[in-house]
From TrEMBL:
PANTHER family: UDP-ARABINOSE 4-EPIMERASE 1, UDP-GLUCOSE 4-EPIMERASE. Keywords: Carbohydrate metabolism, Galactose metabolism, Isomerase, NAD. Pathway: Carbohydrate metabolism; galactose metabolism. GO terms for molecular function: UDP-glucose 4-epimerase activity. InterPro entries: Epimerase_deHydtase, NAD(P)-bd_dom_sf, UDP_G4E. Residues 3-252 form the NAD-dependent epimerase/dehydratase domain. It comes from the Bacteria. SUPFAM superfamilies: NAD(P)-binding Rossmann-fold domains. This is UDP-glucose 4-epimerase. Its cofactor is NAD(+). It comes from Fructobacillus americanaquae. Its EC number is 5.1.3.2.
């Protein structure tokens, strides 16, 4: 039996593939390579270049492979892009989930672990955020993912497809051997942008807004190491394999760091005096997003190994130093 990783050529998906292989699992990857990198997929995994909205091609994968469970990372995830192109997000993310669930139903595959997001909460009413807090997304990305969660819930009641939604906060770092890492084109995420400045590929990092309601005025996020995040998916697969009911879990460290603190941590991690400037706020950024991930710890038994951002950034820097321009196959 194999685990199917949808979006396994992406940043988080490729780390998941490596962790599953480490555990001796058979892994099948489906990715359309619109954002992902073929070189990110471990050679031991079977690879299909398929778009999840292509029902026939996806069905052929399920026909050929003996799929036991699905882990779904194949979605667009950039907030400003979703605001500019909402239909692109509802098509790829939300409509893609319809096709996926139809094919899972056709082939009697009953388990799915899904990449959800803190963006489903919108502006938080409590900090830290609990799974039971209201979900009122403030952008199409968060809305598309919330709709996907709801679809899975109805597919559970109608077809008994069990699901775990893992709501990520901010993900950073790279596998410790530096062989795979974060490489988006164009890059929008904080840690890789800070490291571009450290590597001399940009003059400075622009910190978006210094007038947030936080102790230093810079907005605060909760950063988790990508391997710890992947390991939570493995625990979620075990949880479903044991016949447990569908559930949602926040994945965060419970400690928030401001943008300025992240720049300072990156200076320490790299030894480079990275230049930083204050710029205007980025639209749609809440002041603070910090997770309460007690449920993931207690129910799944999740124990993140990385508990400080400097160590997380060091692993991202290791990848950056080994691959200054990311994957050679980048488009
Ligand atoms: N950020 C920043 N400068 C950048 C990129 C990001 O100040 O060049 C800030 C952004 O406003 C947010 C945090 O860094 O507070 C994390 O942003 P990122 O895009 O990495 O993740 P998001 O929180 O949007 O998922």
């Amino acid at each position: 039996m194999s685990v199917l990783v949808l979006g396994g050529a992406g940043y988080i998906g490729s780390h998941m593939v490596r962790r599953l292989l480490d555990q001796g699992q058979d892994v099948v990857v489906v990715d359309n390579l619109v954002k992902g990198h073929r070189a990110a997929v471990a050679p031991e995994a079977k690879f299909y270049q398929v778009d999840i909205r292509d029902k026939q091609a996806l069905s052929e994968v399920f026909e050929k492979e003996n799929i036991d469970a699905v882990v779904h990372f194949a979605a667009f995830s950039i907030v400003p892009e979703s605001v500019a192109e909402p239909l692109m997000y509802f098509d790829n993310n939300t409509a893609g989930m319809v096709t996926l669930l139809e094919v899972m139903k056709d082939f009697d595959v009953k388990k799915i672990v899904f990449s959800s997001t803190a963006a489903t909460y919108g502006n938080p009413v409590n900090i830290p955020i609990k799974e039971t807090d209201p979900q009122n997304p403030i952008n199409p990305y968060g809305e598309s993912k919330l709709m996907m969660e709801k679809m899975m819930a109805w597919a559970d009641s109608a077809y008994d497809i069990k699901w775990v939604a893992l709501r990520y906060f901010n993900v950073a770092g790279a596998i410790e051997d530096g062989s795979i890492g974060e490489d988006h084109g164009p890059e929008t995420h904080l840690v890789p942008i800070i490291l571009q400045a450290a590597a001399g590929q940009r003059e400075y990092i622009e910190m978006f807004g210094d007038d947030y309601k936080t102790p230093d005025g810079f907005n605060v996020r909760d950063y988790v190491h990508v391997v710890d995040l992947a390991d939570a998916h493995i625990l979620a697969l075990d949880y479903l394999a044991k016949g447990n009911k569908s559930a949602q879990f926040n994945l965060g460290s419970a400690t928030g760091f401001s943008v300025k603190e992240m720049v300072e941590a990156a200076r320490e991690a790299t030894g480079v005096n990275i230049e930083a400037k204050v710029g205007p706020r980025r639209p749609g950024d809440p002041d603070i997003l910090v997770a309460d991930s007690t449920q993931a710890r207690e129910v799944l038994g999740w124990q993140p190994k990385f508990d400080n951002v400097k160590d997380i950034i060091k692993t991202a820097w290791n990848w950056k130093e080994k691959h200054p321009n990311g994957y050679d196959d980048r488009k």
